[in-house]
Amino acid sequence: MRHPSVRFFPVVCLAVVLSGLVSSPAAAPLAAVGHPLPPWQRGMLDIHQINTGTGNAALFILPDGTTWLLDAGAVNRSGSREPRYDAPQRPDTSVRAGQSIVRYIRRVHPEGEGGALDYAMLTHFHDDHMGTLLPESPTAKSGAYQLTGITEVGDELRIRLLLDRDWPEYSYPAPSGGAMMLNYRAFLQWQREHRGLQVARFEAGRNDQIGLRRAPRDFPSFEVRNIAANGRVWTGAGTTARTRFPEGIMPNENNCSLAFRLTYGAFTYFNGGDMAGQLAPTSAAWTDLESAVAWVTGPVDVHALNHHGTPDGANAFFLSVLQPRVHILSTYASSQPGPEVMRRMLSERIYPGPRDIFMTNTHWPGRREHMVKLYGEKETAWLLERFGEIASTQGHVVVRVEPGGARYSVLVVDDSKVDGGVRSVHGPYESRGAARAAR
Ligand SMILES: [Zn+2]
Predict the structure, then answer these.
(1) Most CB atoms within 10 A, among 51, 204, 223, 425?
(2) How far away, in angstroms, is 50 Cα from ligand 1 center?
(3) How do residues 45-70 score in pLDDT, each as one tens digit?
(4) CA 55 to centroid of ligand 1, rounded, Å
(5) What Å distances lie between residue 398 and 92, 121, 231, 413, CA to CA?
(6) What does the pLDDT average to over 229-249?
């Protein structure tokens, strides 16, 4: 498997540096290895897959400066500062994951330190997406809730609108009375009463729940289409959706994940939380959400791999329709990604053409022995060889789409310290829609 952006990486970097030297003063500064990430500028679309080593978190900076946090995971052991899974916490365990996410956002926010989040969204109610509640999780100054993941981020940074899959009842598929959900609901209530937080249920089919809050008319090609939630999937017609879940079944939390498609000009991105599609021999057909979602999503440029590279995600049909040029994997355990998923992602029989894979937290010392326990010597050796070939195995992954959406680059940012610089530059890639329009 050849990956041009990796093979030609030194050439790309040199070209990036040289073109930065001769570009006009008005042009956006280009990213260069070893230097800080150049700030977002108006017209750009930034997607920052933030690596804390303890779950999922992504910050979107939309073309008019609207900000949107997707998930704020934090999985830690009780009585220890270590993560519950075996990836190392980033930058280290001196601060909690929620605090690391806040620091990251403050560093890149278009309005600087004091900037609020226009949107926050939870793909589903698992702790690697919203934060583990531990006995030692500190209590907010207000005394109303404990701080972990999304409640910690939202306590520090004002959130204007929070979207989740089940506001306001929290009763689907069954009433949720667990301590983590009660803490989350106490957070929502206090923030609504004291800080003006709005909360809404994400509804499959709609394209008006996430939008540009500052200058929507300046970027008319921008759209976020809600594709799925609670097993309901957009039909592709208007804003209608229909359920994939038969009457009387009990889906699990991952089955209920939100999914959306973001388009900006010729550029398209997909995120489906932890939804599944690869059926085990004994699984019911309705657990395959990915196939229904693929029909209405279509080809994309960039794809956040469903369920972190767990074997039930990224089925062959789903990949054959989306055909991602860039895969982003939010990884925090030895099992991620498994060899089956890696084979599917790399297979040119599933879809032709080059593709680049970026993982957030994969290549750490000590991982090999855990992988051998899971996959055996032979499969582990095969996977580690692949890890050596792919675009990046460690760091924050920043997709930076150029104004208008015709091209984008992927910038890997050092996650070992709070102010880490750019570690590698990949691309620029031509967005699919631009390539189609030129034919
Ligand atoms: Zn997850």
Answers:
(1) 51
(2) 14
(3) 999 999 999 999 999 999 999 999 99
(4) 7
(5) 20, 19, 30, 7
(6) 97
**How far apart are the CA of 58 and the centre of ligand 1, in A?**
13
Token pair in block for residue 370? 């855990």
What contacts 8, CB < 8 A, 6 or more positions away? none
Please state whether the peptide bond connecting residue 168 to the residue before it is cis, i.e. omega within 30 degrees of 0. yes
Q: State pLDDT tens for residues 381-428.
A: 999 999 999 999 999 999 999 999 999 999 999 999 989 999 999 999
Q: Give residue for tokens 């008006």.
A: 208
CA of 369 to the centre of ligand 1 (A): 23
In the block, which residue shows the tokens 């997909």?
270
CA-wise closest residue to 88 among 348, 331, 357, 281: 331
Q: Where do runs of H (alpha helix) occur along 31-126?
A: 97-108
Indicate yes or no: pTM above 0.90: yes
Sheet holding 267-271, edge to edge: 241-243, 232-234, 223-229, 259-264, 267-271, 302-304, 326-329, 356-359
The alpha carbon of 313 is separated from its chain's Cα centroid by a whole number of angstroms, namely: 15
- Domain range summary for the chain, segments of one domain joined by +: 1-19+222-439, 64-164+166-201
Interval between CA 393 and ligand 1 midpoint (Å): 18
Beta-strand relationship, 45-49 and 326-329 = unpaired
Contact 105, 117 (CB under 8 A): yes
- What spacing in Å lies between the alpha carbon of 121 and ligand 1's midpoint? 14
